[in-house]
Design a protein that fits this description.
Strand content: 5-15%
Distance between the termini: 43 Å
Radius of gyration: 30 Å
Number of helices: 9
Shape: extended
Number of strands: 5
Order of helices and strands: EEHHEEHEHHHHHH
């Protein structure tokens, strides 16, 4: 058991969600991440990005904390807050490995099946009766969209609706107006100057999560055109 007194730790996501944890001053950053993954996963992860251990970053005063560091060693004190954020590069790599394990070994090839012998002679179809001819004429007069095409059209509409839903969700994640100003203030609270925050948001098309990622890792070359590439 730790002899250090417990601290009440505050956490705030880029999206504005807040939660608290208690931990000793000598607790490691890795142990804090583990607590978040088990106790507050719904605050950081989502249905589209479920929990994968080892994919979180903790940001404190503009710096990514290392797993082996302790809270006291990082200078974390009560009254301040840390920002938990998914490391997208780590997440994609871990997800790919996880999916590969779930797929398992390739299935054995199916055994060859000997085709059944063809019939000795094809039967000549009987001439249609008058009743059948009348039915066929009626069908030709009521020609509409074939069932297969109608199904394809319905599927296309459904896909269009689904794509619209994805676009709507993506658009809803972008900050504008008063929301943008609020996000700028939230990111500045992490320890970044306003000018750098605004620049990162421009590069990220006002997506706050991506803007923070750019602030931590640098803005990719060419995104800001005349303003230059990665932040130095």
């Amino acid at each position: 058991l730790s002899s250090s007194p417990a601290m009440n730790l505050r956490f705030k996501t880029v999206g504005g969600k807040e939660f608290c944890l208690e931990a000793a001053e000598d607790a490691t950053i890795a142990s804090i991440k583990g607590q978040i993954e088990t106790q507050h996963a719904e605050q950081v992860f989502s249905r589209l990005q479920p929990v994968i251990p080892g994919t979180l970053n903790l940001i404190y005063q503009g710096k990514i904390l290392k797993d082996e560091e302790t809270l006291g060693g990082c200078g974390v004190t009560e009254g301040t807050f840390m920002v938990p954020m998914i490391d997208n590069a780590k997440y994609k790599k871990a997800k790919a490995a996880q999916d590969g394990e779930a797929a398992g070994p390739a299935a054995a090839p199916a055994q060859e099946v000997t085709p059944a012998p063809a019939p000795s002679a094809a039967k000549t179809p009987a001439a249609p009766t008058k009743a059948e001819e009348g039915t066929r004429d009626g069908e030709e007069k009521n020609v509409g969209t074939p069932a297969g095409e109608a199904g394809s059209a319905g599927a296309a509409d459904a896909e269009a609706g689904g794509a619209g839903g994805v676009e709507t969700k993506a658009a809803s994640e972008l900050a504008t107006g008063d929301s943008l100003n609020a996000r700028i203030e939230q990111i500045m609270e992490m320890g970044f100057p306003r000018e750098e925050v605004e620049r990162a948001l421009r590069a990220a098309f006002n997506n706050p999560d991506r803007a923070v990622e750019y602030l931590m890792t640098g803005i990719p070359e060419g995104i800001l055109g005349g303003e230059g590439g990665a932040a130095g």
